[in-house]
Amino acid sequence: MIEFPWQQEAIIRHSQRLVDSFQHWTGDYLLDVNGSPLETAKALFEAPFVLASHGTELDPVFNYGNRKALELWELSWEEFTRIPSRNSAEEVVQEERDRLLVEAATKGFSYYSGVRITSTGKRFQIPDGILWNLLNEQNQYYGQAAFFSNWKFIT
Length: 155
Hints:
Elements: H1 9-26, H2 37-45, E1 50-54, E2 62-65, H3 67-73, H4 77-80, H5 94-107, E3 109-117, E4 123-135, E5 141-148, E6 152-154
Antiparallel strand pairs: 1-2, 1-5, 3-4, 4-5, 4-6
Helix pairs in contact: 1-2
């Protein structure tokens, strides 16, 4: 079991992409950190908001979830990083999720709200999320990430 994924070299690099891509598209800072890449990776993982990302597969799989994301979806790092990101939304909202992903892919980022579902079937409302494209060090598309700090469980 990976207790501290932020200590892995690949996750340290990915954390920097998350921060840099967010700033590139929105002009804002995801996190106020002026430390080393390792300190940034730890701060993102331990942040008080939910942060998750997926890769570029045809059926994108989560490749990152910070501690809040793992707690919210009730999954370990190993479990979270093996599931398709589409599984975070119920079938009835898949069409809206797909539209949002396309909008973010076209414009670079998008604000969103919506209902998502945990691994145990609990539904929650996100009122004010941000979805953005990830760029690698060569400014090439590298996936998408989502951030939100507010959510409410619904019955």
